[in-house]
Amino acid sequence: MSLQLVKAGTADAVTLVGISKHAFESDVEVGASDLFGPPGYKSLPFYTKMARMNCLYKLIDDDGLTVGGAVLFIKDNEMNVGRIFVSPEHFRKGYGIFMMQQIETMFPEVQIFTLDTPVWNIRTNAFYQKLGYTEVRRDNDFVYYEKRALRAGV
0.85 exceeded by the pTM? Predict the structure, then answer.
C-alpha cells in the first residue's frame, strides 16, 4: 500500500464531495438514524471553500486515485481534525489509520490534536480510542477527543 495524503485544490472538491457523501451516508449501517453527516458533507461550495482556505486534503492510492479526504484546521500549536473520510469500498483496509498517522506527523508544530464524533457511532469512537485519543468530554450528541503529540525532545 502506497498512499499519500496531500493538500487538495478546488479542482478536487467535486471528487471529494462524492466520496464524503458515500462515506458519511454509510453510517446508517452502523447506527445512524438517517442518511446524514457533518455540516457541508455533501456540499460542493463547502469543500471548495475548505480548499481555498488550505484546509482540505486528499488521500491518493497507488493508482493516483483519490480514495479519501480530510478537513483540518490549524491554530497555533493545535489542530482540529474537522473530519476524515474514506470511500466505503476501502473501509477496513487501514486507510483511516494511515490518514490519521500522516496527519499527526505532517505537522510538527502541532502539540494537541482535537476532534469530535457522534456518541452513537461506535465505529468511529472505537477507531479514535484505538489511535490513542482520549475522551475529554461528551454531551448528548458528541464525544470530544484529544491527543497530545509525542515529539522527541519535547
Answer: yes
